[in-house]
Amino acid sequence: MKKIFSILLLFIICLNAFAQDKYSIGERTTSNPHVKKFAVTQNNIHYVLSTPYVDTAIKIYDYANVLKSNEQKKIQQRCKEFINKTGLDIAIVTLSENTKEPYGSFNQSETYISDFYDYNDFKANGVMFLLDFSNNRNTIFDAGDLYERNFMGSNLEYYGSQMRPLFDMGQYYDEIMWFIDHVEEDYLYDISFPIIKCSLFALLFALLFWTIHRSKYKLKLKATSANNYKKKGSFVLTQNKTDFVRTFTTKTYSPKSSGGSSGGSGSSGGGHSGGSF
Question: 261: closest CA among 179, 155, 167, 182?
């Protein structure tokens, strides 16, 4: 009986180790930390070595095993579509155990996902999402140009209000897909808005030019009323009727309200905007 119990315990330990390393492609050491984008120093070497070295072609890292196999495949495919449409990179992680030490103003979850992105070979510009079950926390962050524009930081409050209920209900697949869909939508609208604004400016300028140009050739008349040109008694109004023809709706750019962003620099020195909810 003890032998069976020992074998079962060993199997569980091995299974847990496999779950933690299933996305890894190498082991980080002091002599070979596998970091390309940032300098490795005595101040951040601990954070480097405690970060998994993963294959960045994989975009969904389900360490917590909360997603079904077909859900992971759908998320992976959606991430590829997202990258093709936006040119951004993306990393999504689920975590059941977080052993990271908080760095600076970053909490444990924010430190984990920022290190995960920075110390692996993801693109300079991208977004990341962590479901940290050990801290009951969701974290969304960005990197590169998006950080300079506070992209995730400005969307944090709205995203949190929409995503947190899905997390609390255990709808992790739906939450992840919602995140990808709305980051893509908001980013594409964000980069197209200057073009729309310039187009409207050009249209207004053309209209102003046409108005000024037309006024130069407009016939100036002393008469101030059409009655001067109407034969007396030739026109009689028998019915006054108002017809509602159509309405016009205009859309203006209005960024979502800013949440409590905890953006800043991670242990790598790379900047991120966003936060946890």
Answer: 155
Closest CA to 88 of 157, 7, 10, 188: 188
Domain 22-189 architecture: Roll (3.10)
The pTM score is: 0.72
Measured CA to CA, the distance from residue 137 to residue 150 in angstroms comes to 21
What SS3 state is found at 155?
A: helix
C-alpha 241/C-alpha 113 separation (Å) is 66
Nearest to 272 by CA among 162, 166, 129: 129
**Rounded distance between C-alpha atoms, residue 173 and residue 120, angstroms:** 24
Separation between Cα atoms, residue 28 and residue 203, nearest integer Å: 57
d(CA 19, CA 99): 15
Q: 127 near 142, Cβ under 8 Å? A: yes
The tens digit of pLDDT for each residue in 1-16 reads: 555 544 443 444 444 4
HEC secondary structure over 206-273: HHHHHHHHHHHCCCCCCCCCHHHHCCCCCCCCCCCCCCCCCCCCCCCCCCCCCCCCCCEECCCCCEEC
For the chain, the domains span: 22-189
Q: What is the pLDDT of residues 179-215, one digit of tens each?
A: 999 999 999 998 875 544 444 444 554 455 545 655 5
Helix (H) or strand (E) run with residue 110 in it: helix 108-118
